[in-house]
Every structure is written in structure tokens, then in C-alpha cells.
């Protein structure tokens, strides 16, 4: 009985977290859409923002599942930059941007270690 209650509480917490994340995503997508609509002198409807938010949410879920799968396949429980690079392998431009960012971060860390 206690296990069932704990599971119900966990599921409710998960639903609440997903709801908050979707609200934050709605806000971010709405802000970007509003900025673009002003810049392009166009109007966007709340329905459009909602549909775009759901599209982005679905893509985020797919990316998260892929990253988890890559990590698990490599025998790790933590997602690494290698997993992200593997995910971006079919988009050369994105892969290059991510690779450059990772290389800059590694170089920065190497410099700070050398100073110590």
C-alpha cells in the first residue's frame, strides 16, 4: 500500500514537472514568435504558438530518447558530448557548430588547468 502511494506521488510530481516545462516552453516559443512577427510585420495566433510548442516538445522528447539510447548502448548511465555529436552526425552544419563549441570548451579547461 505504501509503495502504491509513493508511486502515485511520483507520477503526480512527474506530471507537474512536465506541465511546468511545457509552460516554460510555451513562453519561450511565444516570445520568439512575437519577436519574429514584429520583425516581419506578421501576426501569429495563440493556436500557432501552441502547435509550434507541441512540435518542439515532440522533437525534444525524441532527442532525449535518442541520447539516452546512445548512452545506454555505450554502457554508460550519463549522456556525454559524444552522444550529442552522434545525434548531430546527419546535420553537418549543426555537427560543426557543436564540435567547435566542445573544442573551445576543452581548450579553455586545458588553459585553466595549465595556470594552476
Automatic annotation (TrEMBL):
SUPFAM superfamilies hit by this protein: Histone-fold
Spans traversing the lipid bilayer: none
Keywords carried by this UniProt record: DNA damage, DNA repair, DNA-binding
InterPro entries: CENP-S/Mhf1, Histone-fold
Family assignment from sequence similarity: Belongs to the TAF9 family. CENP-S/MHF1 subfamily.
Name by which UniProt lists this protein: Centromere protein S
